[in-house]
Structures are given as structure tokens and as C-alpha cells.
């Protein structure tokens, strides 16, 4: 998941209070929509476990945006397309993730596509980011390469 020019870039969910890669309380449900506890879902990836699929990485990146974890976003962004700085303190609250489609991106693939919709609220009101994101393997780990913003 990227935060392209003109699209919301972060989370207002206490970014100043969270330390990058710090887990929320154990009782929290994961922001990615899995309905699992954060610790047994995206928290494991934020703690260093490699995502097994492109979709799993997409979900963990969405959670990183929602929780204000720029370090994780940088680590899981392909070096060739990674921005120099990832600023998440813009008043955006990520509300819901919907996976629309996936193409490849499995444990034995070298690339994959995940199309998603991410609902958010920012100082301008409610919005929806619809992106078709490309993922590749780099050094054996899935990373976000780039994405095309779609009309919703």
C-alpha cells in the first residue's frame, strides 16, 4: 500500500504515542480485518516474521499505516521505489480494508498483485483509496513495488 501524491498518507491513531514497531495491547483486534488478535496476525509480521504471501504483506502494510509504523513500511517497500521519507502524521484514520482481487503472490511466486480498497477519514472527511498494488520478492521476502490508483 502506498500513499501516493494527493492520497492520505497515515494514521491519526496516536502516532505520536506509538513507538515504531510497538505492538498495541494484546486484546486489540488486528486492523487488517482478519478478526484475529493483532499479536497473532499482523503483529507477528511487524515483529519481524516474513509475510508468506503478497496478500499477507498487503494486510500487514495496511495495519502499519493504521498503527503509524513507518519503519515497517520502509522495510517492506522495494528499494527502487521507496520514498526517502514516510510521514504518517497527517490526521488520517484508516477505517477498513477490503481485498478485491489477488493475482499470484503465493509462497512459490516471485511477483503478485493485490487489488484493495482502504476506507479512511481525514480532516477533509471520509474517503476510499482503491489501488492495484504490485509486489515482488527481494532477498526472499515480499516487498511492495508500486501501485495504480483506481477509481472507486
UniProtKB/TrEMBL annotation:
One Pfam family hit: YchJ_M-like
Domain YchJ-like middle NTF2-like intervals: 53-147
InterPro entries linked to this entry: NTF2-like_dom_sf (IPR032710), SEC_C_motif (IPR004027), YchJ-like (IPR023006), YchJ-like_M (IPR048469)
Region (Disordered): 1-24
Similarity field: Belongs to the UPF0225 family.
The protein, known as: UPF0225 protein F8O03_07595
Species annotation: Pseudoclavibacter terrae
Amino acid at each position: 500500500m502506498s500513499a501516493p501524491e494527493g492520497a492520505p498518507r497515515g494514521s491519526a491513531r496516536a502516532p505520536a504515542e506509538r513507538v515504531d514497531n510497538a505492538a498495541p495491547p494484546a486484546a486489540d483486534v488486528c486492523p487488517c480485518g482478519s478478526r484475529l488478535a493483532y499479536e497473532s496476525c499482523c503483529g507477528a509480521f511487524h515483529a519481524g516474521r516474513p509475510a508468506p504471501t503478497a496478500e499477507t504483506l498487503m494486510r500487514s502494510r495496511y495495519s502499519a499505516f493504521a498503527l503509524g509504523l513507518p519503519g515497517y513500511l520502509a522495510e517492506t517497500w522495494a528499494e527502487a521505489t521507496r520514498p526517502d521519507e514516510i510521514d504518517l502524521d497527517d490526521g488520517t484514520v484508516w477505517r477498513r480494508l477490503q481485498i478485491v482481487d489477488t493475482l499470484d503472490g503465493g509462497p512459490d511466486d516471485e511477483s503478485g498483485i493485490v487489488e484493495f480498497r482502504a476506507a479512511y477519514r481525514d480532516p477533509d472527511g471520509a474517503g476510499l483509496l482503491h489501488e492495484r498494488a504490485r509486489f515482488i520478492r527481494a532477498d526472499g521476502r515480499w516487498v511492495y513495488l508500486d501501485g495504480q490508483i483506481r477509481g472507486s
